[in-house]
Amino acid sequence: MSSAAPSSGSPLVVIGRYAFRYRDALLPVALVGLAALWSPPGSAAGRRLDQIAFTAAVGLALAGQSLRVLVIGLTDIGLGGRNRTAYAEHLVQKGLFGHCRNPLYVGNACIQTGMLLAVNHTWAYLIGLPLIALLYRSIVAAEEHFLAGKFGDAYRDYCARVPRFGFRLSGLRATLRAAPFDWPRVVRKEYGRPFAWITILIAIAIYKDVRTVGFEASLPVIQPALVIWGVAVAAYLVARTLKKANRLGSD
Prior knowledge:
Layout lengths: L10 H11 L1 H14 L7 H31 L6 E2 L2 E2 L16 H17 L2 H30 L1 H9 L10 H7 L4 H8 L1 H22 L5 H26 L7
Antiparallel strand pairs: 1-2
Helix pairs in contact: 1-5, 2-4, 2-5, 3-4, 3-8, 3-9, 4-5, 4-9, 5-6, 9-10
C-alpha cells in the first residue's frame, strides 16, 4: 500500500486523464472488435468449453455488479467526476471505501473481464486483460494525483491504511451492518449498468450461436434470450421513468 501520489507528469496520470474522459466507451468498442475475431469451435469439447466460459462470464459479471450495488447502497459517494475529469467535494472513507480505495473500479473490472470470458478468444484475453488493467490503473493514478493535491495529508493517511484494489477484511462485517442500505439510490445511480452488460452478454450469445449453427437452428437460443432482454428493457424503462419523476430521490 503506497501512500505516495504520482506526479502530474507521470505517464499513468497523463493516460488516466484521457482514459477517464472516455472510460465508458473504450472497452465496449474494444469488445466489439475482439468479438469479431471469434470463430466457432471445431469440436464438441471446444463448444463445451465455450459454454463453461460463458457461464463463468455471467457469474463474474454478477459478482462485479453485486459489489457495485453494495458500495452505492451503503455510501452516498456524490459525484465521481465533473466535466470528464476527476472531481470530489469530500474524501469518501465510509462504507466499503474504508476497506478498498476503488471498490467501484474493482466491480467494473469484474464485469468487463466477464465480457472477455463471454467472447472466450485468445486475442480477447491477450488484448482485453492488459487493456482493462491499464485503463483502471491509469484512471486511478490520475484520481490519486487530484485527491492528494486537494486533501493532502488526510488522503495520504487514507492511502496508508486502505489498499488500492485489494480489500481490508478487518471490520468488514461491522461496516456492512452499520449503515442503512439505500435501494432507491442504487436504482437511481446504477440502473443503466446492468442493462448494458446484460445486453452485451445476450448479443454475444446470439452472435456466437448463429455463427456456430446458423440462424434457424439458433432460434431455441434467440427466443429466450430476447425474452430476457425484454425484461431488462422493461426494468430499465421503469427505473428511468422513476428517476425522471424524482421518485427515487436526488443526488
